[in-house]
Amino acid sequence: MRKLLFKIREETENSQTTKFIEFITDRTPQWTEEQYLRNRVNTTMELIGDEETEETEPISREVRLG
Q1: How far apart are CA 23 and CA 46, in angstroms?
Q2: Closest of 57, 55, 2, 56 to residue 26, by C-alpha
Q3: HSE (CB half, 13 Å, CA atoms) of 25?
Q4: How far is CA 12 from the centre of its chain?
Q5: The CA-based dihedral angle spanning residues 22, 25, 29, 33, taken in that order and rounded to the nearest 10 degrees
Q6: What are phi and psi of 2, to 5 degrees?
Q7: What are the two backbone dihedrals, phi and then psi, of residue 6, each rounded to the nearest 5 degrees?
Q8: Mean pLDDT, to the nearest integer, of 28-54?
Q9: For 52, phi and psi rounded to 5 degrees?
Q10: What mean pLDDT do residues 27-41 have?
Q11: Is 8 within 8 Å of 21 (Cβ atoms)?
């Protein structure tokens, strides 16, 4: 499995939100990004982490950096 960390920016007419989401997956970063963005407009993703992990359950979760 891979642990992928993305910086995600969502923009609306009045605001911009930035969050970090970690995906535990057996898919590629490109596939994960395509699936996440497919029904989201005004959203961009930047891959900031890609590493192997011992975790076996696929999951996505918001994380706090710092």
Answers
A1: 13
A2: 2
A3: 19
A4: 19
A5: -70
A6: -115, 150
A7: -120, 140
A8: 97
A9: -75, 150
A10: 96
A11: yes
Cβ neighbour number for residue 33 with a 10 Å cutoff: 19
Q: How would you classify residue 42: left for phi > 0, otherwise alpha for psi between -120 and 50, otherwise beta?
A: left
What the block records as the tokens of 10 is 């969502």
Confidence of residue 38 (pLDDT cuts 50, 70, 90): very high
Sole residue written with tokens 């996505």: 60
- C-alpha dist (Å) from residue 63 to 10, 20, 27, 57: 16, 6, 20, 17
Q: What are phi and psi of 36, to 5 degrees?
A: -65, -40
Residue type, 36: Y
21: nearest Cα among 39, 13, 29: 29
DSSP for 14-34, please give it.
S-EEEEEEEEEESS-HHHHHH
Length of the chain: 66
